[in-house]
Automatic annotation (TrEMBL):
Gene3D superfamilies in UniProt: Aspartate Aminotransferase, domain 1, Type I PLP-dependent aspartate aminotransferase-like (Major domain), Winged helix-like DNA-binding domain superfamily/Winged helix DNA-binding domain
Pfam hit, one: GntR
Domain HTH gntR-type: 1-69
Family named by the database record: In the C-terminal section; belongs to the class-I pyridoxal-phosphate-dependent aminotransferase family.
One Gene Ontology molecular-function label: transaminase activity
UniProt keyword terms in alphabetical order: Aminotransferase, DNA-binding, Pyridoxal phosphate, Transcription, Transcription regulation, Transferase
Native organism: Marinomonas phaeophyticola
Name used for this protein in its record: PLP-dependent aminotransferase family protein
Organismal lineage: Bacteria, Pseudomonadati, Pseudomonadota, Gammaproteobacteria, Oceanospirillales
Amino acid sequence: MTLYETLANHLKEHIQQGFFPVGSKLPSVRQLSHEHSVSLSTVQEAYRQLELEGMVEAKPKSGYFVRKIEIRTPLPTTTRPPQRPMEVSQWEEVLNLLLCKSESGFLQLQHAMPDMESSSLKPLLKKLGDLSRHRPDLGLPYGDIRGSEELREQLARLAVASGCLLHPDDLVVTSGCQEALSVCLRAVTQPGDIVAIESPSFYGSMQAIKAANLKTMEIPTHSEDGLSLEALELALDQWPIKAILITPTCNNPMGYSLSEAKKERLYKLAQSYDISIIEDDVYGDISYDFPRPKSIKSFDEDGRVLLCSSFSKSVAPGLRVGWIAPGRYRDKVTHIKYVSSSMCPTLPQIAMADFIKTGGYERHVRRMRLQYQQGRDHFLDAIQTYLPKGTRVSYPKGGFVLWVELNDNIDVAKLAIMGRECKINIAPGMLFSSTGKYRNCMRLNFSDQSIADRENGVRKLAYVINKYSKQYS
């Protein structure tokens, strides 16, 4: 590795760890030359390398700065879902997406998958390896039905960052957030009940609603302000809604985060109508804001909020380590968890508890926050450059997915088929509605592609859109 590459990597690591926030000025060429005992041309070449990667920008007579994108593309319009309860459909389409394999040479923009190649995961992988080699017996017997006490202690520590004061006994460990949502829905509803959800909403949540024989009431949602509380209140007046299922922090698929004031208002609204809130906080720890936003659960005075989360988005989905803070529904949740899947595998719980306790988790999410924020900026820049005029795109406040709204005359389900011919996979918007709305929209993932792959993918997408327009004009 050359001197300039070594220096570039050093600077990149400091940017990723948050020593140089987005928009901040970087050390001068002369300062870095002195500090690292390298020539001025070496420093200049290192900065040029970071410019090519889109991480820094040079400002005349001012120096180098951590790059901050200027947003020119308009945000998606406020959604207009059906104004009545609906049964969830789209399972066949969701199944097709889930079965879509990662073929060689394909750019996978369809799955909400985190980057699992980061070196900050090495301590966790080492712990898993050590446990498998030296203490595999720990994973053989039945464990605590509520989950490993060691893990629950660490989860209670993590909860403080979101404003929650929890005891380890307040938590129930699950096989990922998907099981957590499913268990909570069954705990607070009966078949035939109505659940209010954001629109668009995560297809996994809606399929959990479908499996519990419930109906959805989709509430209008804006990509920046989030769910409309006014529309929710009207729905609560008109329909016997039994629960609200919401992802208020780093929402999937739009990426917005509700303000703390709006989260508290939502809680008070649920309190006044005496209904439960199921809060999906799976992306909360990878919010770009620091400190991370408070959860709705932090305002919970009477145990009506069931907080669900997991490490599937902040670390890796294959761990299948999730949890619930079920409040007043703890006994019911524990019983449903027992009859549905009994206990969760022990070794991943022990490894995650160690990862958190030794500081590895905090270091990892700190790096991921910055990496995903930079990925968002690069992706938005490419979308603004290559996708056709009239495209609207969300501006995520965390996580690694965003929502794209194309012209009304484009059917993204057909576009996705054409995209596969060009070795690019996308998630059509109709999957995120109980009735197949948002046919001109799509959710895209920007977590783990290189800058070159990301830009190439958007160029391919632009080509496919142009080809579609000619074929179906």
